[in-house]
Automatic annotation (TrEMBL), chain A:
The keyword Transmembrane helix applies. This is Peptide ABC transporter permease. Keywords: Membrane, Transmembrane, Transmembrane helix, Transport. It comes from Jiangella anatolica. Its main location: membrane. GO terms for cellular component: plasma membrane.
Length: 382, 719
């Protein structure tokens, strides 16, 4: 009789990869991370995104200039290439520098054109003194990561815009708004979607019917006219950032519907799982069943869908600002910067004005890669 | 036998006179998985002679299905056939071809699949598209492979449906798969498979998902069609009873290799490989009465990526030769009579002196149940179910109007005595699961009462309980679920899963909870070291032990086990049944054991209730019910169970698989449409639905003709 009480096997099946016992004890998140790590593109995306948010956090330190800095002498100045060694003289002269500009004025149109002048040399340095700012809102300082050693020298690594502002500094500052302003909206949509979808799926019956009709109503609203209307309807005396924030919140109230449907579906299929019945028979209250037994089994999917909805918000910001409906100067965001590229002549003269678009593409792609990687890794028990 | 000469055999030399239709030699199929290279099929040799049925037997994970799929090039990536030959000799021209040389997408496969070799699968519903009618799907095969016109194909489809004994084929040809029962769908699949008159039919567990009654009919049909067409059948099953029923030759597989091969007679009466031995003994046999302890196979089938060195069975083998079986790879040895076995015990070079053959199995003889069990009829019942009904509305149309009701449980009355094991049996859809769910109050019954009496207290009506009183009841009455995979939350550790009831009932937390859970794990035969592991680290049998631990942690009085062992392999099943029995003695438990497997019920239960369409048709103690049933349905159920003994393919009571619509049950006795003993004008009268009446002490039957009929039990037709 004792023989049958023996464990069926000395130990659960050991598996290669991480130490076998670890794998058996690994929590869901550990397993997700192990699988996510194997996804190269997603890991690259994660690195890029971490970089972007670091830039957003330390924008004033990383950018050579503030958003309000401009020099009308250098309107549409082209990008300069940083060089390490100067061979123009007799000997090799080491040190980071850029070439300066020579200016010409068209006698008929009075237009200024800039060309890089290989003979002038503007020395660049790290941790140079420049405009004052307050780092993270805590420390007042005027140290910038890099910049011209002489603050009055013109340095435009990515070129200048129509007012003679440094595009690189603008893109760095724009990261802050572009990468964050959507988050509140996404988070709001997420919470709404999970809660309403969850109620719909778990309770079922009439409640489910009602919530689903509401979902269908919101899904039938055309978004672009709504944006236009909202942009016009918001109080005039609000600042541009405030107005845009209000728009994203309103968009979120419409955007929760997709997630609500997904969550409802998951709840419906989970409701019939035996472990949910088991939890109910174990004496768990309804709240405990939902939050302790059901939600954890698809949080990883939720995180993935959350990651995938952030780029949508970034794109929305960009396109709205491009149309002139979202953010407006003096607020700096990638979309606002791109607005300058609407002008065909400006485009022909200064193609570098499209560079904020590259930042958008990079950020959106990275979010998508990370989201894909998370989605693939989300269910570690297959 | 001890002196029998075992010689190494080359398979072709030992072959029978007729060249085999299909010959696998050294077939290897590998899967590159994250856990390493899994050799699912690792050097399989197998011959299928024309016109015969070869069975592949083994537990899950032994590579039976992959072998079959390899033949037709149906192994999906990352799997691939990596070695060996699949010699196929097409009937007629006789030039043999090697299918292993064809790529997965080779167009020549299309000629062979469907036309020369057909395959049927375990899940008939999943194999038929719900978007097309039965006729469309049959017709498509006919038009593609036989070039028939649309009208001809339809006529031929009807003829084929008639041939597989589908009633009213002219109507059924226009129905969709979801309108048919599982048995009917499998018949349709067989019709599709037969439409091009294949020379070989590969049947991959075709009856596993079906009820025994339906299974018996499908097996009959395959045998009958084989006799008609002369095709060969490669039949894959884990059920040795089915083997006895249908096979000419048997190949026993273990971890991707054939360990024993012989005629059905040889395998079933003279098993040579220790694995076959154990497999045969761990199946509870119908007719052997209530058993104290079932013999088991130690351990479980290891994961394919972790094949033990030497003989892959040696870690579980009672007869392993120390130092030899773990290092030497056994080759197939022929006993001279076509009975091959891959075991070193039969190899004179390795068998140590003193070991005798055949194997003698050392184990305690199955002791019959001691007469004085804890079951006492005079104590008040623990549970008294009175006229219980559970109706599910059937909704139709856009606004969900209720157009009818399914009587899942329809006026059931029964008592459960303290300390007994009550079995609930019946075909799927008979309401046994719903009855179990009502008892544990996972469902609230529509009407009726369930009186629960705890000790000497006053009975309470469970159907009216709610809130705290319901939670107290659910502490006493627990359930063990069927599916060891979906019943454990994959996101929780064993500590959380088993300890959760203690938390929700406010019994224990912190270190006391850990102690209790560890103690419980030990009692169900798991190591307390597993506390912080997640369910994905465990096998089916281990998970079922966790399920049992979760049910018992609250110290219940009654445990409802709903098909608790049906998802498990035979060797593990016996382990779990023994565990349930031991725990019953240890904790003075009362069981309600729901199962469709009559041999398991016979081995475990004191009394058995047979259900049909939501009603109990017979209720008696196990011995009486199995030896002297009074209801024709019970008789039919018993006779449909295949028994792993050759020469038992006798005349059986066969039930039609055309079940009545549960929304509109027939007039009179609900069973009369399928009953072989029904009398027209009596059993089908609207005035005469039979009620459950007591025919002897503790024996209730609901049959109008119970007094006149003399029905056979399992021992009656035993030689």
């Amino acid at each position: 009789m004792t023989t049958t009480l023996l464990p069926e096997d000395a130990a659960p099946a050991p598996e290669p990869g991480p130490a076998p016992a670890d794998r058996d004890r690994a929590s869901q998140w550990r397993l997700v991370w192990w699988r996510f790590r194997g996804h190269k593109l997603a890991m690259a995306g994660l690195v890029v995104l971490s970089g972007f948010y670091l830039v957003a956090l330390l924008a004033s330190f990383l950018a050579p200039h503030s958003t309000s800095w401009f020099d009308e002498d250098y309107i549409y100045a082209p990008p300069q290439l940083p060089k390490l060694v100067d061979t123009s003289g007799d000997d090799w002269n080491w040190g980071l520098f850029v070439n300066g500009y020579t200016m010409e004025q068209d006698p008929e149109t009075l237009e200024l054109t800039h060309t890089t002048d290989p003979d002038t040399r503007i020395e660049l340095g790290f941790f140079v003194r420049g405009e004052s700012y307050s780092l993270l809102g805590l420390v007042d300082t005027n140290v910038h990561l890099f910049g011209p050693k002489d603050p009055d020298q013109p340095v435009y690594l990515l070129g200048a815009d129509h007012r003679g502002r440094d595009l690189l500094s603008l893109i760095i500052h724009g990261t802050r708004v572009s990468m964050t302003i959507g988050l509140v909206g996404v988070l709001l949509a997420f919470v709404l979607g999970v809660v309403l979808g969850g109620i719909s799926g778990y309770v079922g019956g009439k409640t489910d019917g009602l919530i689903q009709r509401v979902v269908e109503f919101f899904m039938s609203l055309p978004t672009l006219p709504l944006w236009l209307g909202l942009a016009a309807a918001l109080p005039r005396d609000w600042g541009p950032l405030q107005r845009y924030f209000a728009i994203t919140v309103i968009l979120a109230i419409i955007a929760w519907t997709d997630l609500a449907r997904v969550v409802r579906g998951r709840f419906l299929s989970l409701r019939t799982e035996q472990f949910v019945t088991a939890a109910r028979l174990d004496g768990s209250t309804r709240r405990r069943v939902i939050f302790r037994h059901m939600l954890p089994s698809f949080t990883s999917h939720l995180v993935a869908s959350l990651t995938l909805s952030i780029p949508a918000m970034i794109l929305a910001e960009t396109s709205l600002s491009f149309l002139g409906l979202g953010l407006q100067s003096p607020v700096i965001s990638w979309g606002v910067l791109l607005e300058q590229a609407q002008n065909f002549r400006a485009m022909a003269d200064a193609p570098w004005l499209l560079l904020p678009g590259a930042a958008v593409v990079l950020a959106v792609l990275s979010f998508n890669f990370v989201g894909d990687g998370l989605r693939d890794a989300a269910d570690p028990y297959r | 036998m001890t002196d029998m000469e075992f010689t190494g055999s080359t398979l072709t030399a030992a072959g029978p006179a007729a060249p085999p239709l299909l010959e696998l030699s050294g077939l290897r199929t590998e899967f590159a998985t994250r856990d390493g290279l899994v050799r699912a099929v690792d050097g399989v040799d197998l011959r299928i002679p024309p016109g015969s049925t070869v069975c592949l037997v083994g537990e899950s994970g032994c590579g039976k299905s992959v072998t079959a799929r390899s033949i037709l090039g149906l192994v999906d990536p990352p799997g691939r056939v990596s070695g060996g030959h699949i010699w196929w000799r097409p009937p007629g021209d006789g030039e043999r071809v090697d299918l292993a040389g064809y790529g997965r997408t080779d167009p020549r496969f299309r000629q062979i699949r469907g036309q020369q070799i057909s395959m049927i699968f375990q899940e008939p519903l999943a194999a038929l598209s719900p978007m097309y009618t039965v006729g469309d799907q049959l017709g498509e095969t006919l038009r593609l492979h036989r070039g028939l016109s649309k009208a001809e194909a339809r006529d031929e489809a009807i003829a084929l449906l008639r041939r597989v004994h589908i009633p009213r084929p002219e109507q059924r040809v226009d129905e969709y798969s979801f309108q048919l029962s599982g048995g009917m769908c499998q018949r349709v699949m067989i019709a599709v498979a037969l439409s091009c008159e294949p020379a070989l039919l590969i049947a991959d567990e075709p009856t596993t998902a079906l009820d025994v009654t339906i299974q018996a009919r499908i097996l009959d049909l395959i045998a009958e069609l084989q006799a008609d067409t002369g095709m060969s059948v490669l039949f894959i099953t884990h059920d040795l009873g089915v083997v006895a029923e249908i096979a000419d030759e048997v190949a026993v597989m273990y971890l991707g290799r054939v360990v024993e091969h012989g005629s059905t007679e040889q395998i079933l009466t003279d098993p040579r490989h220790p694995y076959t031995h154990r497999l045969l003994r761990s199946v509870p046999r119908l007719g052997s009465g209530r058993q104290r302890v079932l013999p088991t196979v130690r351990g479980q089938v290891p994961h394919g990526a972790r094949r033990p060195a030497g003989c892959s069975f040696h870690p579980r083998c009672d007869h392993a030769i120390a130092g030899v079986c773990g290092t030497v790879d056994p080759a197939a040895l022929d006993g001279g009579d076509g009975h091959e076995v891959a075991c070193l015990l039969y190899d004179d070079a390795h068998r140590p002196a003193g070991r005798t053959l055949p194997l003698t199995v050392v184990e305690p003889a199955p002791t019959p149940e001691p007469a004085a069990t804890a079951v006492t009829a005079d104590r008040p019942p623990l549970l008294d179910v009175r006229d219980l009904r559970m109706l599910f509305p059937v909704r139709h149309g856009m606004f969900g109007r209720t157009t009818g009701q399914v009587h899942a449980v329809d006026g059931v009355s029964l008592t459960v005595r303290p300390g007994e094991t009550l079995g609930l049996v019946g075909e799927s859809g008979c309401g046994k699961t719903t009855l179990g769910r009502c008892i544990v109050r996972a469902e609230t019954p529509t009407s009726g009462q369930i009186q629960y009496r705890d000790g000497d207290g006053d009975p309470v009506d469970v159907t009216r309980l709610s809130g705290g009183a319901l939670r107290r009841y659910q502490r006493d009455v627990r359930t063990v679920f069927q599916d060891p995979f979906s019943s454990l939350n994959p996101r929780m550790t064993l500590r959380q899963i088993i300890g959760d009831p203690l938390v929700t009932h406010g019994i224990a937390r912190g270190s006391e909870l850990t102690d209790r859970v560890a103690d419980m794990l030990r009692r169900v035969g798991l190591s307390p070291d597993y506390l912080d592991r997640y369910p994905h680290a465990f096998s089916g049998g281990q998970r079922q032990r966790v399920n049992i631990a979760r049910a018992l942690i609250l110290g219940p009085k009654l445990v409802v086990a709903d098909e608790a062992v049906s998802a498990l392999d035979v060797s593990v099943r016996a382990q779990i049944l023994n565990l349930l029995r031991e725990l019953q003695d240890e904790f003075q438990l009362t069981y309600v054991f729901i199962s469709h497997d009559l041999s398991v019920v016979e081995a475990l239960c004191d009394r058995v209730a047979v259900m049909y369409l939501g009603k109990i048709v017979e209720l008696a103690d196990t011995a009486t019910l199995f030896t002297a049933p009074k209801h024709p349905y019970t008789e039919a159920l018993l006779s449909a169970v295949p028994v792993p003994e050759p020469g038992r393919r006798t005349r059986r009571t066969r039930l039609s698989d055309d079940l009545p619509d549960p929304v509109n049950p027939p007039d009179g006795c609900w069973f009369h449409t399928r009953c072989p003993h029904a009398v027209a004008g009596r059993c089908d009268q609207p005035a005469s639905p039979p009620a459950l009446e007591t025919v002897a002490a503790g024996h209730d039957v609901a049959c109008l003709r119970h007094a006149e009929l003399h029905l056979d039990g399992v021992r009656a037709d035993r030689p």
